[in-house]
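Write out the 3D structure for:
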Amino acid sequence: MADTCYTARATTKQQVLDGIKKLPLHKNKNGQYTHDAILLFQKGIIRVLVSQFNPSNPGNGMKKLLDDGDNLLTKVKATNAVTAVAVLLASKARADKQSKTTGTTVTPVFVKRIEAQEEARPTN
């Protein structure tokens, strides 16, 4: 799963960079950028970001990267990945909490590493 996250991140980054590189930024006869050219360039960048797939915000793509402050996209880090160990720990914590709440022993959903690896593996 972790390898897939890094691959998807790198691919998306490259797609955005390629899209932005294709955008024109016109100069006037004096070789200077005009206000209108900059505004069109900014709108082009927004279009490139919106065109990226983002399942957490359908129809808006990666546009939230331009927003000020924290949001779901800016909080995601490259180190955020689901691993087998994380699945096992979360399963055990959930079972412990349910055991304390109900007063009976609840078995974790995932107890074997192979099961946790299957859960952590992305579905294609």
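The chain has five helices and no strands.
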